[in-house]
Amino acid sequence: MGQLISQIVLGLVSGALLVLLALGLNLIFGLLEFINFSHGALYMVGAYVASYLAVATGSLWPALLVVPVVMALLGAGLERTIIRPMYGRDQVDALLLTFGLTYVLIEGVRMIAGSGGRRVSTPELLRFQVDLGIVRLPAYLLFVVVVVGLVVAGLHLFLRRTDVGLIVRAGIRDHVMIRALGVPFDRYRTLVFALGVAVAGIAGVLTGPITGVYPEMGADILILAFVVVVVGGMGSFWGAVVAGLLIGVVVSLTTLYASVYAGIVPFVLMILVMTFRPRGLLGAT
Question: What is the pTM of this model?
Protein backbone atom coordinates (compact mmCIF):
# COMPACT_ATOMS: atom_id res chain seq x y z
CA MET A 1 0.00 0.00 0.00
CA GLY A 2 2.84 2.37 0.83
CA GLN A 3 4.41 1.81 -2.58
CA LEU A 4 1.07 2.44 -4.28
CA ILE A 5 0.55 5.75 -2.47
CA SER A 6 4.12 6.79 -3.20
CA GLN A 7 3.62 6.04 -6.89
CA ILE A 8 0.36 8.01 -6.96
CA VAL A 9 2.13 11.02 -5.42
CA LEU A 10 4.91 10.74 -8.00
CA GLY A 11 2.20 10.68 -10.67
CA LEU A 12 0.56 13.78 -9.22
CA VAL A 13 3.91 15.60 -9.25
CA SER A 14 4.70 14.73 -12.87
CA GLY A 15 1.08 15.45 -13.79
CA ALA A 16 1.21 18.83 -12.04
CA LEU A 17 4.24 19.85 -14.11
CA LEU A 18 2.41 18.72 -17.25
CA VAL A 19 -0.53 20.89 -16.18
CA LEU A 20 1.65 24.02 -16.14
CA LEU A 21 3.01 23.34 -19.61
CA ALA A 22 -0.42 22.46 -21.00
CA LEU A 23 -2.02 25.60 -19.55
CA GLY A 24 0.62 27.73 -21.25
CA LEU A 25 0.06 25.96 -24.56
CA ASN A 26 -3.70 26.32 -24.21
CA LEU A 27 -3.52 30.04 -23.47
CA ILE A 28 -1.22 30.71 -26.42
CA PHE A 29 -3.21 28.62 -28.86
CA GLY A 30 -6.55 29.95 -27.62
CA LEU A 31 -5.78 33.64 -28.15
CA LEU A 32 -3.04 33.58 -30.77
CA GLU A 33 -4.28 30.53 -32.74
CA PHE A 34 -0.63 29.60 -32.81
CA ILE A 35 0.84 26.16 -32.04
CA ASN A 36 4.06 26.84 -30.16
CA PHE A 37 6.41 23.89 -30.61
CA SER A 38 9.18 25.87 -28.90
CA HIS A 39 7.30 25.73 -25.59
CA GLY A 40 9.36 22.78 -24.36
CA ALA A 41 12.62 24.51 -25.23
CA LEU A 42 11.50 27.62 -23.33
CA TYR A 43 10.68 25.41 -20.34
CA MET A 44 14.24 24.05 -20.60
CA VAL A 45 15.70 27.57 -20.73
CA GLY A 46 13.78 28.44 -17.57
CA ALA A 47 15.24 25.38 -15.85
CA TYR A 48 18.78 26.38 -16.84
CA VAL A 49 18.31 29.97 -15.68
CA ALA A 50 17.07 28.60 -12.34
CA SER A 51 20.09 26.29 -12.05
CA TYR A 52 22.54 29.17 -12.51
CA LEU A 53 20.61 31.39 -10.10
CA ALA A 54 20.63 28.60 -7.53
CA VAL A 55 24.42 28.36 -7.78
CA ALA A 56 24.90 32.13 -7.69
CA THR A 57 22.64 32.70 -4.68
CA GLY A 58 23.10 29.37 -2.92
CA SER A 59 19.36 28.69 -2.96
CA LEU A 60 16.55 27.86 -5.35
CA TRP A 61 14.15 30.30 -3.70
CA PRO A 62 15.20 33.43 -5.65
CA ALA A 63 14.72 31.49 -8.89
CA LEU A 64 11.03 30.98 -8.12
CA LEU A 65 10.60 34.76 -8.22
CA VAL A 66 13.16 35.78 -10.84
CA VAL A 67 12.73 33.09 -13.50
CA PRO A 68 9.04 33.80 -14.28
CA VAL A 69 9.91 37.48 -14.81
CA VAL A 70 12.92 36.67 -17.00
CA MET A 71 10.94 34.17 -19.05
CA ALA A 72 8.00 36.56 -19.42
CA LEU A 73 10.35 39.22 -20.81
CA LEU A 74 11.92 36.66 -23.15
CA GLY A 75 8.47 35.54 -24.28
CA ALA A 76 7.35 39.11 -24.90
CA GLY A 77 10.47 39.79 -26.92
CA LEU A 78 10.03 36.66 -29.03
CA GLU A 79 6.36 37.42 -29.66
CA ARG A 80 7.03 40.98 -30.81
CA THR A 81 9.97 40.09 -33.06
CA ILE A 82 9.55 36.65 -34.64
CA ILE A 83 6.12 35.31 -33.65
CA ARG A 84 3.96 38.29 -34.62
CA PRO A 85 4.81 38.14 -38.36
CA MET A 86 3.38 34.59 -38.40
CA TYR A 87 -0.17 35.66 -37.48
CA GLY A 88 -2.58 35.02 -40.32
CA ARG A 89 -0.13 32.80 -42.18
CA ASP A 90 -0.37 29.07 -42.75
CA GLN A 91 0.08 26.95 -39.61
CA VAL A 92 2.89 25.09 -41.36
CA ASP A 93 4.89 28.33 -41.30
CA ALA A 94 4.33 28.62 -37.56
CA LEU A 95 5.38 25.01 -37.01
CA LEU A 96 8.56 25.45 -39.04
CA LEU A 97 9.39 28.69 -37.22
CA THR A 98 8.94 27.23 -33.75
CA PHE A 99 10.79 24.03 -34.68
CA GLY A 100 13.67 26.23 -35.79
CA LEU A 101 13.47 28.30 -32.61
CA THR A 102 13.53 25.08 -30.58
CA TYR A 103 16.82 23.97 -32.08
CA VAL A 104 18.33 27.45 -31.79
CA LEU A 105 17.51 27.46 -28.06
CA ILE A 106 18.78 23.91 -27.51
CA GLU A 107 22.05 24.48 -29.36
CA GLY A 108 22.47 27.86 -27.68
CA VAL A 109 22.21 26.20 -24.27
CA ARG A 110 24.68 23.52 -25.36
CA MET A 111 27.16 26.19 -26.43
CA ILE A 112 26.85 28.05 -23.12
CA ALA A 113 26.37 25.23 -20.60
CA GLY A 114 27.58 22.13 -22.41
CA SER A 115 25.71 18.92 -23.17
CA GLY A 116 26.26 17.13 -19.88
CA GLY A 117 23.41 18.62 -17.90
CA ARG A 118 23.43 20.19 -14.45
CA ARG A 119 22.27 19.05 -11.03
CA VAL A 120 20.05 21.33 -8.96
CA SER A 121 19.99 20.94 -5.20
CA THR A 122 16.74 20.68 -3.30
CA PRO A 123 16.27 23.73 -1.04
CA GLU A 124 17.68 22.96 2.40
CA LEU A 125 14.38 23.85 4.04
CA LEU A 126 12.70 20.99 2.16
CA ARG A 127 15.32 18.28 2.63
CA PHE A 128 13.21 16.07 4.88
CA GLN A 129 10.60 13.35 4.64
CA VAL A 130 6.92 13.81 5.45
CA ASP A 131 5.47 10.91 7.41
CA LEU A 132 1.95 10.11 6.16
CA GLY A 133 1.57 7.04 8.36
CA ILE A 134 2.00 4.24 5.84
CA VAL A 135 4.52 6.03 3.64
CA ARG A 136 7.22 8.69 3.93
CA LEU A 137 7.52 11.15 1.06
CA PRO A 138 10.09 13.82 0.21
CA ALA A 139 8.78 17.20 1.30
CA TYR A 140 9.91 18.74 -1.99
CA LEU A 141 7.45 16.64 -3.99
CA LEU A 142 4.56 17.85 -1.87
CA PHE A 143 5.90 21.40 -2.22
CA VAL A 144 5.76 21.07 -6.02
CA VAL A 145 2.10 20.04 -5.89
CA VAL A 146 1.28 22.99 -3.61
CA VAL A 147 3.09 25.52 -5.82
CA VAL A 148 1.38 24.22 -8.96
CA GLY A 149 -1.96 24.45 -7.16
CA LEU A 150 -1.26 28.08 -6.27
CA VAL A 151 -0.23 28.91 -9.85
CA VAL A 152 -3.35 27.25 -11.26
CA ALA A 153 -5.55 29.12 -8.77
CA GLY A 154 -3.80 32.39 -9.59
CA LEU A 155 -4.26 31.91 -13.33
CA HIS A 156 -7.92 31.04 -12.83
CA LEU A 157 -8.53 34.15 -10.74
CA PHE A 158 -6.62 36.28 -13.26
CA LEU A 159 -8.74 35.04 -16.14
CA ARG A 160 -12.05 35.23 -14.25
CA ARG A 161 -11.74 38.22 -11.93
CA THR A 162 -9.70 40.85 -13.77
CA ASP A 163 -10.54 43.13 -16.67
CA VAL A 164 -7.48 41.89 -18.55
CA GLY A 165 -8.55 38.29 -18.02
CA LEU A 166 -12.05 39.12 -19.27
CA ILE A 167 -10.62 40.58 -22.48
CA VAL A 168 -8.33 37.56 -22.93
CA ARG A 169 -11.25 35.14 -22.55
CA ALA A 170 -13.37 37.22 -24.91
CA GLY A 171 -10.51 37.28 -27.40
CA ILE A 172 -10.26 33.50 -27.27
CA ARG A 173 -13.95 33.28 -28.16
CA ASP A 174 -14.03 35.98 -30.87
CA HIS A 175 -10.94 38.08 -31.47
CA VAL A 176 -12.52 39.72 -34.54
CA MET A 177 -15.21 41.29 -32.36
CA ILE A 178 -12.61 42.39 -29.79
CA ARG A 179 -10.68 44.18 -32.53
CA ALA A 180 -13.88 45.80 -33.78
CA LEU A 181 -14.45 47.22 -30.30
CA GLY A 182 -11.11 49.03 -30.50
CA VAL A 183 -9.25 46.87 -27.99
CA PRO A 184 -5.43 46.98 -28.58
CA PHE A 185 -5.40 43.28 -29.35
CA ASP A 186 -1.69 43.02 -30.17
CA ARG A 187 -0.82 44.03 -26.60
CA TYR A 188 -2.94 41.21 -25.24
CA ARG A 189 -1.32 38.74 -27.61
CA THR A 190 2.07 39.77 -26.25
CA LEU A 191 0.80 39.50 -22.68
CA VAL A 192 -0.65 36.02 -23.18
CA PHE A 193 2.46 34.70 -24.92
CA ALA A 194 4.63 36.13 -22.14
CA LEU A 195 2.33 34.63 -19.50
CA GLY A 196 2.43 31.20 -21.13
CA VAL A 197 6.23 31.28 -21.28
CA ALA A 198 6.45 32.46 -17.66
CA VAL A 199 4.34 29.51 -16.52
CA ALA A 200 6.61 27.16 -18.48
CA GLY A 201 9.55 28.78 -16.69
CA ILE A 202 7.97 28.02 -13.31
CA ALA A 203 7.64 24.38 -14.37
CA GLY A 204 11.33 24.41 -15.29
CA VAL A 205 12.32 25.78 -11.88
CA LEU A 206 10.33 23.08 -10.09
CA THR A 207 11.64 20.26 -12.28
CA GLY A 208 15.35 20.96 -11.71
CA PRO A 209 15.75 19.35 -8.27
CA ILE A 210 13.77 16.28 -9.41
CA THR A 211 15.43 15.36 -12.69
CA GLY A 212 18.32 17.79 -13.06
CA VAL A 213 18.48 19.99 -16.15
CA TYR A 214 19.73 18.99 -19.60
CA PRO A 215 19.29 20.39 -23.12
CA GLU A 216 16.79 17.78 -24.31
CA MET A 217 14.48 17.97 -21.30
CA GLY A 218 11.96 20.14 -23.15
CA ALA A 219 11.57 17.68 -26.01
CA ASP A 220 10.99 14.85 -23.52
CA ILE A 221 7.98 16.55 -21.95
CA LEU A 222 6.54 18.64 -24.80
CA ILE A 223 4.80 15.76 -26.59
CA LEU A 224 3.12 14.72 -23.33
CA ALA A 225 2.00 18.31 -22.79
CA PHE A 226 0.34 18.30 -26.21
CA VAL A 227 -1.34 14.99 -25.33
CA VAL A 228 -2.70 16.66 -22.18
CA VAL A 229 -4.09 19.55 -24.23
CA VAL A 230 -5.83 17.17 -26.65
CA VAL A 231 -7.21 14.88 -23.93
CA GLY A 232 -8.43 17.78 -21.79
CA GLY A 233 -9.85 19.73 -24.72
CA MET A 234 -8.25 22.51 -26.76
CA GLY A 235 -8.81 25.80 -24.97
CA SER A 236 -10.23 24.18 -21.82
CA PHE A 237 -8.55 25.48 -18.64
CA TRP A 238 -9.87 22.81 -16.29
CA GLY A 239 -9.59 20.19 -19.02
CA ALA A 240 -5.81 20.72 -19.01
CA VAL A 241 -5.72 20.43 -15.22
CA VAL A 242 -7.76 17.22 -15.09
CA ALA A 243 -6.00 15.60 -18.05
CA GLY A 244 -2.53 16.48 -16.76
CA LEU A 245 -3.13 14.94 -13.36
CA LEU A 246 -4.91 11.94 -14.88
CA ILE A 247 -2.11 11.18 -17.33
CA GLY A 248 0.55 11.68 -14.67
CA VAL A 249 -1.08 9.21 -12.28
CA VAL A 250 -1.96 6.65 -14.98
CA VAL A 251 1.60 6.64 -16.35
CA SER A 252 3.03 6.37 -12.85
CA LEU A 253 0.81 3.42 -11.93
CA THR A 254 1.52 1.72 -15.24
CA THR A 255 5.24 2.10 -14.53
CA LEU A 256 4.69 0.29 -11.22
CA TYR A 257 2.58 -2.61 -12.51
CA ALA A 258 3.43 -2.94 -16.23
CA SER A 259 6.39 -0.69 -16.96
CA VAL A 260 6.82 -1.95 -20.53
CA TYR A 261 3.54 -0.21 -21.47
CA ALA A 262 4.11 3.07 -19.63
CA GLY A 263 5.40 4.89 -22.69
CA ILE A 264 2.35 4.20 -24.84
CA VAL A 265 -0.41 4.68 -22.26
CA PRO A 266 -0.81 8.47 -22.79
CA PHE A 267 -1.12 7.99 -26.54
CA VAL A 268 -3.64 5.16 -26.20
CA LEU A 269 -5.68 7.43 -23.95
CA MET A 270 -5.41 10.25 -26.49
CA ILE A 271 -6.59 7.96 -29.31
CA LEU A 272 -9.58 6.82 -27.25
CA VAL A 273 -10.54 10.40 -26.37
CA MET A 274 -10.17 11.59 -29.96
CA THR A 275 -12.31 8.67 -31.14
CA PHE A 276 -15.16 8.89 -28.66
CA ARG A 277 -14.99 12.53 -27.50
CA PRO A 278 -13.15 14.54 -30.16
CA ARG A 279 -13.38 17.83 -28.25
CA GLY A 280 -11.67 16.37 -25.19
CA LEU A 281 -12.82 15.47 -21.71
CA LEU A 282 -13.93 18.99 -20.78
CA GLY A 283 -13.92 20.68 -24.17
CA ALA A 284 -16.99 22.42 -25.53
CA THR A 285 -19.49 20.10 -27.14
Answer: 0.93
